[in-house]
Amino acid sequence: MEPTLLQTEVDPQVIADGVNLLWVLVATFLIFFMHAGFAMLEAGQVRSKNVANQLTKNLLTWSVGVAVFFLIGAAISSVVGGDGFSLTLAAESPNEWVGWLFGAVFAMTAATIVSGAVAGRAKLRAYVGYTFVLAAVIYPVVAGMGWGTAGPLTADGMLGDVIGVGFHDFAGGMIVHGMGGIAGLTAAWVLGPRMDRYNDDGSANVIPGHSLTFAVLGTLILAFGWYGFNVGTAATVFEVTESGELALASFATVGRVALTTTLAMACGAIGAGLVAWLKTGKVDTLYVANGLLAGLVGITAIPDTTAWWGAFVVGGIAGAQLPIVFEFVEDYLKIDDVCAVFPVHGSAGIIGTLLFPFVAAPGVVDSIGTAFAAQLAGVAVITVWTIVATAIVFGAFKAVGQARVSEEHERDGLDVSEHGVDTYPEFGKPDVATDGGSTDEIIRADGGEPNDGEIKMVTAIVRPDRLGAIKQSLAEAGAPSLTVTNVSGRGSQPAKKGQWRGEEYTVDLHQKVKIECVVADIPAQEVVDAIREGAETGEPGDGKIFVMPVEGATQIRTGKTGPDAV
Description:
Layout: H1 5-9, H2 12-45, H3 51-80, H4 96-117, H5 124-146, H6 158-163, H7 173-191, H8 212-230, E1 238-240, E2 246-248, H9 254-280, H10 285-300, H11 308-331, H12 341-354, H13 368-399, H14 407-412, H15 414-419, E3 455-462, H16 467-476, E4 483-489, E5 496-500, E6 503-507, E7 510-519, H17 524-535, E8 543-550
Antiparallel strand pairs: 1-2, 3-7, 3-8, 4-7, 5-6
């Protein structure tokens, strides 16, 4: 047989190296895209007045964290892992930075988890300061102990040397997610709960997030990126054998990683939904979404070794524990974990890591007891280090009064107080031109002087979704000037029961829009008719319209008074 062109002209090692580098970069980009999922998930679980703050934290987590990890963190990780001090910027080959970048996206995932726990009350400077320390020291120490270098491309950390048996964490179930969840819980404990989160008797108040849609879409984006997290950690596609032939390396068993990741994800959602249903009689949407992520976290440490049935077990348990652990954190520990980062990332990561020897495929584990002891020791070391380091950093900020925003700023919302922006500045659409045309062309229905020469205030409480139609109707009636306020209230519209992460609360104050329109040369009844035309749906809760006399009016710019001012 004559040699093929590939055998004679192409070095198999070049092919192996090129494909492996390409695969690692693709997986890295998938993991980076998870930040879009984190941003949406966390933004959806906070109140509308804190959305921009949460998004800013996500942006700065990546921006500050990845720079610090490049300059400091990767070197610290190398030292802790026993490879000596080596600055990333001094790499001998440019392609060495591919491995660094793969480790960096793992580090930034751990960092961004914390932002969800401290949402709504942490000062931006405190959070960014903590992100700096986490990327420089806290996470690199954990990664070095567990993996030996800046990321999961190798698995020879010092934990195995200390314990005597290798600590197994394939893609960061404990090193990344467990660590991030524990750090978030610790930071939330140091900061204290949000205002009005707990009553004087210790009972908890539900504070729903502003967008379940954002939360679910963020969950699905995270799940998509997670394939980069788990499957991507099977980083070597090809290897060159001693005979010089190409062969599959980690990809020889990559199907197991993909399968167990998928099954655990599915069972996490099922487990959380089932427990929520047993607790409340309803399948809570947010618990299902969070449970899907908990299932992913649970399997992340062990997808390469777990039997197919083990993925069902790990995912189901990780999802089922979520409502139980969240309730424990909320009601017994009194810690305000806004985005449930500990039950999703912390406890789920711990459970999955500890289940390693019990769900392993045949032939993987020689001694269940020994392997469990190694996993337990690794979890304990990472937990203690993370709690102590996080408490010191946030405790230091708290001691100098820089950890938490003021009560006034918390009431106003962090979007305005920390960033000077309003995430949702528009009350409704479509936007309508406000000039309204010349009032001289309007034919008066009363045939004489409108409102008997008086000034009238027309006030309407209406559904928010009808605002656009009302603005259009008022402009067509020649009364474009109006003031709009977001309000809440109750009337004939019946109260409803709402749920947020499995907890029921009464919705008896419905979200409404208050429209105020002061008129002099336009009959008040025409304004009333225009508002009613735009607001009516025929269902209870359409609102009410009130007409009141105005004793006087003054235009600030000109000093005009009475009807001329209007």
